[in-house]
Design a protein that fits this description.
It is a single chain. Strands 5-6-7 form a 3-stranded antiparallel sheet, sandwiched between helices. A two-stranded antiparallel sheet has the order 1-4. The chain has a two-stranded antiparallel sheet with strand order 2-3. The two termini are about 25 Å apart. Helices cover about 35% and strands about 20% of the residues. About 25% of the residues are buried. The chain has helices at about 1-10, 15-20, 45-55, 80-85, 95-110, 160-175, and strands at about 60, 70, 75-80, 90, 125-130, 135-140, 145-150. The chain is built from 6 helices and 7 strands, in the order H-H-H-E-E-E-H-E-H-E-E-E-H. By secondary structure, the protein is of the alpha+beta class.
Length: about 190
């Protein structure tokens, strides 16, 4: 956390906000040190899309809930391949690759260790809101990025930590990756 705040103060909050916007973060982003620690409320979908852009070597793809919609007569009503906005460059590939290296170390040696997968590389970031009201883990393998949130809609304290979210991610991904080829990050 200290390194993130020091870096934001050195490069300037407006540049941090600009990068967040390029990664698909919308809504209010306050210009204060804790902004880089998640002090601005964002959705799991928005944050997962931003991390996906890092995993995509810097290319942001607008998330959509459907690949396609087919009517009762078999006629295709919507196709993501036909209608989706093309990917756009959010950050350079070099910056994205460096970030993925750091995110891998979170899983190898840090707070994301419970997300580790026995047969393939993983990368990700934990997050815990004040009072452990929100527990996050957004993680990636080279082919897929997935976000996990644990908490209560009523904003109650969970009495847990983001290690639980990392463990849930790891459990989920061990099932999802069965039969999926093992790849390496760049």
């Amino acid at each position: 956390n200290t390194a993130a705040v020091a870096t934001a103060e050195k490069v300037g909050f407006p540049r941090v906000i600009d990068t967040a916007r390029r990664l698909g973060i919308t809504g209010e982003i306050g210009e204060y040190p804790s902004m880089v620690l998640g002090a601005n409320e964002k959705t799991v979908l928005e944050m997962t899309a931003a991390y996906t852009a890092i995993n995509n070597r810097g290319l942001f793809v607008m998330p959509t809930p459907f690949e396609e919609i087919v009517g009762p007569d078999g006629k295709r009503l919507y196709s993501r391949a036909e209608k989706a906005k093309p990917p756009r460059r959010a950050v350079s590939s070099d910056v994205a690759d460096a970030m993925m290296g750091m995110l891998q170390s979170v899983v190898r040696n840090g707070t994301g260790a419970p997300a580790g997968l026995p047969d393939r590389p993983a990368a990700g970031k934990t997050g815990t809101a004040e009072g452990a009201r929100d527990l996050w883990f957004i993680g990636s393998i080279p082919q897929l990025t997935t976000g996990i949130w644990l908490g209560y809609d009523q904003n109650w304290k969970t009495g847990s930590s983001s290690a639980q979210a990392a463990a849930a991610w790891g459990s989920y991904m061990r099932t999802v990756t069965k039969g999926m080829p093992v790849q390496s990050f760049p």
